[in-house]
Amino acid sequence: MKEGKLNWDDLTEIIKHNKGIIKDDVRIHSGLGEDCSIINFGDYECVISTDPITASGSNIGKLAVNINCNDIASCGVAPLGIMVTILAPEGCTIEDIKEVMDSIGQEAARLNLEVLGGHTEVTSAVNRMIVSCTVIGKTKANRAVAASGAKVGDDIIVTKYLAMEGTNIIVNDRREEAEKFLSNDEIKEAEGFIDYISVIEEGTICGDFEVNAMHDITEGGLLGALWEMAKASSVGFKVYEHKLPIRNVTKKVCEHFKISPLRLISSGSMLITAENGEKLVKELMVAGINASIIGKITEEKGILSGENSEEEVLPPGRDELFNI
Question: Which CDD domains match (predicted)?
Answer without folding.
Answer: PurM-like1
